[in-house]
Amino acid sequence: MTDARGNARPNGDGSARHTPGTPCWVSLMARGLAATEQFYGALFGWEFRPGPRPLGPYVRAVLDGHAVAGIGVLPPDRRLPVAWTPYFASDDVDLTAESVRSCGGTVGVGPLDADDAGRLALASDPSGAVFGIWQAADGAVAGVTGRPGTPAWNELTTYETTNVAKFYETVFGYDEDPVVSTDLDYVTLRLDGRPVTGVHGIGNALPRDRGPYWTTYFTVADTDDAVDQVLHLGGQVLGGPRDTEHGRVATVADPEGARFALVRKAG
Questions:
Q1: Is 80 in contact with 55 (CB distance < 8 Å)?
Q2: Which residue numbers delimit the VOC domain (predicted)?
Q3: Each residue of 25-43: pLDDT tens digit?
Q4: Residues 261, 213: contact at Cβ < 8 Å?
Q5: Which three-class secondary structure state does DSSP give residue 186?
Q6: How crowded is the C-beta side of 169, counted as CA atoms within 13 Å?
Q7: pLDDT at 180 over 90
Q8: pTM of the predicted model, to two decimals?
Q9: What are the residues facing 196 on neighbouring strands?
Q10: What share of the chain is helix, strand, coil (3-state, %, to 5)?
Q11: Which of 25, 133, 212, 257 is the most buried (most CB within 10 A)?
Q12: Given CA atoms 123, 127, 129, 135 in this order, what sign does their dihedral have?
């Protein structure tokens, strides 16, 4: 686990855009917007501003003037899971969507324009895990990272890594860095030598009623204090806190059940 969102390249106007394939945004689809804003605002210190409305009501979570995440509202007539979804950067979302389809994935929404913010699509890999593709508008600036309240890492939990990692490698041009172990099925996906995301295969331990899913890790100043705050705000602890080589980590869920992770980085 590491912060890979620093992969950015300059635009002609001096702003920066994410290199294609890097995680560039995370978005939560919730059922109750006001209560969700209250939870994450108290936990991470986020403020909220109106965002693009391609799929209905949507707000940007802002930290010291910088957008760090988005929260939208699930349509009441659709039985979709409340979940955080990572978006990966693309220079041409339509072309990337075609690559998703040709590699065995599914494009469920879009590609469509998100007002003047850019162009997006929602897709799923061949195992069913949902992710987004984001083509930022010209002049878009890479978001703030590396501080409490910002996304630090995205990790896919799935059945096995071999075929799934190959899918993402083909679509986004990653290089694979597998863990050589008989006890752990894990692949780090790299771009230009930098780790950008991880794929963890857990076989039959994956709950049948859930299927493969992405987890977003958010940086916190103190994992234990953040866990206490999650509980105080009506969320739940799913695992940890525990010390890892990357820092102290806990897996939690908000009051609507959307799971995410908290990490205080080592060092």
A1: no
A2: 22-136, 150-265
A3: 999 999 999 999 999 999 9
A4: no
A5: strand
A6: 16
A7: no
A8: 0.91
A9: none
A10: 15, 45, 40
A11: 133
A12: negative
